[in-house]
Amino acid sequence: MNGWHHRIGLGIVLPAILLALCSAPGWGAQQQRYTVLVDPAHGGDDTGVVSDKIREKDLTLNMALMVRQEAQKTANLQVQLTRSADRGVTVADRIKMAAGMKPDCLISLHVNAGFGKKAAGYEVYFPGFRQAAAAGAGSSAPILKDMEQNRSLNDSVRLAQRTQNALESVFPRKGRGLRDAPCPLLEGVTAPGIVVEVGFATHPEDRKALGEEQTQRAVARALVRGLQEYFQKNP
Fold first, then answer.
1. Are the C-beta atoms of 132 and 146 separated by less than 8 Å?
2. Pairing mode, if any, of strands 105-112 and 34-40?
3. Residue 40 and residue 63: Cα distance in Å, rounded?
4. pTM to 2 decimal places
5. Per-residue model confidence as pLDDT tens digits over 34-92
6. Are strands 50-51 and 54-55 parallel, antiparallel or unpaired?
């Protein structure tokens, strides 16, 4: 009797376990992976913003490398860089790289400057709506002609929103809003893309924070978190 009951029990339990495993997320199907191209602005002879020994090209590279490191801890993000060392890369070469890679999205990292020493905080730019509106003035043909590009513009706004929300944890109440502005790099590719201006090198507090590895790591984690939220809601 005991052996019969044991066999009956296994006959019920094993199928139940298999059913639970097969219905679990990721079972029998590999989780979708997304390729993200991160562009550390400037490099080589092009230092970018320089303020009190802080060089934009160094900060953007450090944060980009950290973004790649943090993304390696996730199951669904693969980060590629337009440069992984201090070397010059032309905008044309960056565009060519993005076009060949065809990433799911692109983030270009910069450090801001100007507007006097009081300007502080971060800005997120997305390109295209002003240009699309100007091109389509009096006619919807240019927009209807390229639905893929139109879709990328909308996705860029969503990516900008997720990124802005994520960076709020690093720079509380220092967000300067989302901005529509032209960017040669992003205009050259059809993938959704944004430009992130991470703080002002000309602001004493921003400059001090940006020079700290802890802040750079926090920015990288926030960017990865924003990417995950973007892809969760925009598969």
1. no
2. parallel
3. 8
4. 0.80
5. 999 999 999 999 999 999 889 999 999 999 999 999 999 999 999 999 999 999 999 99
6. antiparallel
